[in-house]
Specification:
globular, alpha/beta, seven-stranded mixed beta sheet, five-stranded parallel beta sheet
């Protein structure tokens, strides 16, 4: 078996892994990147990117349908699934190719195959084509093998009747009726795509609310949008199995304690992920793994074996590509001797439902639990000039601050472009901004970002384009001393 020597080896070329390899190379480390399938991992190939391509197309369909209200007259849009799939595939191919060029340009050696630790300083990589295995030796390893969809009992993924997200983004067909089991981010995003393209979608969620952890006011707007598209949301509901009757599928569910049958043509299961920690030889070399399958890590992403690091989804929730990006950089920098650590203030989240949701930092309830006396400022899209001009007035921006110091603690955006707007709030939190800092910052007009500015002003009792709540203290009154 041939042996190759490196300073560092990265296992898994998803968002965390491919970034880690690039950063290692930038820092002068001879690096190998091992991937058994496609560069970019789930995110680029079956997750973030293809789903957003489909979401953009579905949004365009709806825009065309409603264009007559703005004086744009056209025939009802028709969807060519083959061309839509080709557009999605081309988007993916372009980005995957770009990742390959970046790795090559930075001097990273990409090794195709499946890696397994055979010692603390070596892995064996066996090619998917049955070719000769290779041994890679290195002083440090970064494991970025991600997570895989959870398969529900009674709903085995077959790619035909029961889909995972991987099948759903390939849009093999447009079912007349779709049951989406799971009201989390992936289920709600993909289910909304199919609803916009014409499917009648029923969402089934076991918990009391879809999009657990999201501001209930934002959730209500998402549910309203689903109803407007002919969809249904069932909460406190569990699916127990399905049958085939008269050429269709019938999902057996328990809805609020009552048995219910839901007829459909396809079933999408999106109930979460479990880590890909098995089969890597981690435990054999001494890496401690918890009961849920996640390796135990310190603040620098180091496992119980000091030269082995874990990043991305394998490092635990939240399962976010941008979290993987950042962790890849951190692990690479630690290996290179830099004082890098997981020290971010807040991790933004973006949900591409309709309306979109962006959130970062603490909610009002979370702030109160952490000992703050929270104040809230809110600004509705219905009063926002840009939102009115583009005919997207459903939504709001809500900020949470500390009443005493006026420190900004968190923000929730719900509405058009919310996933982009949340970046400013994330930056503000990282910089330790106060509500006043945002309120005093001039925002271009007319833009969607003005809503964040107005929400911060509202929290201070100084909103211009909304009525102020009288209990809000003004700048310069009690509580502003800490800001000074």
């Amino acid at each position: 078996m041939p042996t190759k020597n490196f300073d560092a080896v990265v296992i898994g070329a998803g968002p965390g892994g491919y970034v880690a390899a690039i950063r290692l190379a930038q820092l002068g480390k001879k690096t190998a990147l091992v991937e058994k399938e496609a560069l970019g991992g789930v995110c680029l190939n079956w997750g973030c990117i293809p789903s957003k391509a489909l979401i953009a197309a579905a949004n365009l369909v709806e825009e065309i349908r409603g264009a007559s209200d703005r004086g744009i007259l056209t025939e009802a849009p028709r969807v060519d699934l083959d061309k839509l799939r080709a557009f999605k595939d081309a988007t993916v191919k372009k980005l995957v190719s770009g990742v390959g060029q970046l790795e090559k340009g930075n001097g990273v050696e990409v090794v195709r195959g499946t890696a397994r630790f055979v010692g603390r300083d070596a892995v064996e990589v066996r090619g998917a084509d049955g070719g000769e295995p290779v041994r890679l030796e290195a002083g440090a390893f970064i494991v970025a093998t991600g997570a895989r969809p959870i398969e529900l009992p009674g709903f085995p993924f077959d790619g035909k009747d029961v889909w995972s997200a991987k099948e759903a983004v390939n849009i093999p067909e447009l079912p007349k009726r779709l049951v989406c089991i799971g009201g989390g981010v992936i289920g709600m995003e993909l289910g909304t795509v199919y609803a916009k393209l014409g499917s009648q979608v029923t969402f089934v969620e076991a918990l009391p609310q879809i999009l657990t952890g999201v501001d209930p006011e934002a959730v209500r707007l998402v549910q309203k949008g689903i109803r407007q598209r002919g969809g249904t949301v069932l909460v406190n509901s569990k699916c127990e199995g399905f049958d085939r009757k008269d050429g269709a599928l019938v999902v057996r569910a328990n809805v609020d304690g009552k048995a219910q049958e839901i007829p459909c043509d396809k079933i999408l299961v999106a109930v979460g992920f479990r880590p890909n920690s098995q089969g890597l030889g981690l435990e054999e070399i001494g890496v401690r793994i918890d009961a849920k399958g996640f390796p135990e890590l310190d603040a620098q992403l180091r496992t119980s074996v000091p030269n082995v690091f874990v990043i991305g989804d394998l490092a635990g929730p939240p399962f976010l590509a941008h979290k993987g990006f950042k962790e890849g950089e951190i692990a690479a920098e630690v290996i290179a001797g830099m004082k890098s650590t997981r020290d971010w203030v807040a991790m933004p989240g973006a949900i591409f439902t309709d309306p979109e949701i962006g959130m970062v930092g603490l909610s009002e309830e979370e702030a109160r639990k952490q000992g703050y006396d929270p104040i809230v400022g809110k600004f509705a899209y219905a009063a926002l000039g840009r939102a009115i001009a583009i005919d997207h007035t459903e939504g709001f921006v809500k900020v949470v601050g500390d009443k005493q110091s006026k420190l900004l603690l968190g923000a929730t955006m719900c509405g058009a472009e919310a996933a982009d707007l949340v970046a400013e709030a994330a930056l503000a939190l990282e910089m330790g901004a106060y509500l006043e800092d945002v309120a005093l910052t001039i925002h271009a007009h007319p833009t969607m970002s003005e809503a964040f500015n107005e929400a911060c002003k509202a929290a201070l009792g100084e909103a211009i384009h909304a009525l102020n709540r009288p209990e809000r203290p003004r700048r310069g009154e009690a509580g502003s001393a800490a800001r000074a």
